[in-house]
Amino acid sequence: MDGELQTLRVQPQAASRYRVGLGLELADISLLSMAAGRARLEVNQRVVSVLYHAQDEQTLHLAFTGSGTLQVTNLVATAAATGEQDAGGLVAAPMHGVLLSLPVAEGDSVSAGDTVAILEAMKMQQAIAAPIAGRVIRIRAAAGDQLGAAEPILEIEPAA
User: Quick one: three-class SS letters along the chain?
Assistant: First the structure.
């Protein structure tokens, strides 16, 4: 994974507790303490020490004791800051909720306004529409996932 871009799914569970997914692997992470560039985390019931540095509001560098380093970038915040979401590249959850279904797959062509995801929040379903016409190039969430507001669902490559 050296230099390779990986997408982590971070789902808040409770105060200072998160479920983090990379592909099919899941980890339960709790923030135990944090001060002066150091943090103690419990990762799947194992305590680890981490050095951290915030490069900017979207990028965090982590150094795990004895395990190497990791750069974490909030792609949703980056896309919002650059206007990418308005250009249609990234479709994100408009609110917290459970992703009920994805009626599209990678490679599918969509028209602006087509339903590309259905989210349930507070027992109400909300259809999420494609903001532009194009091709679905990446699915970032799966049916049944608990999503936070602005969490990525899929990416659309604009039609030529």
Answer: CCCCCCCEEEEEEECCEEEEEECCEEEEEEEEEEECCEEEEEECCEEEEEEEEECCCCEEEEEECCCEEEEEECHHHHHHHHCCCCCCCEEECCCCEEEEECCCCCCCEECCCCEEEEEEECCEEEEEECCCCEEEEEECCCCCCEECCCCEEEEEEECC
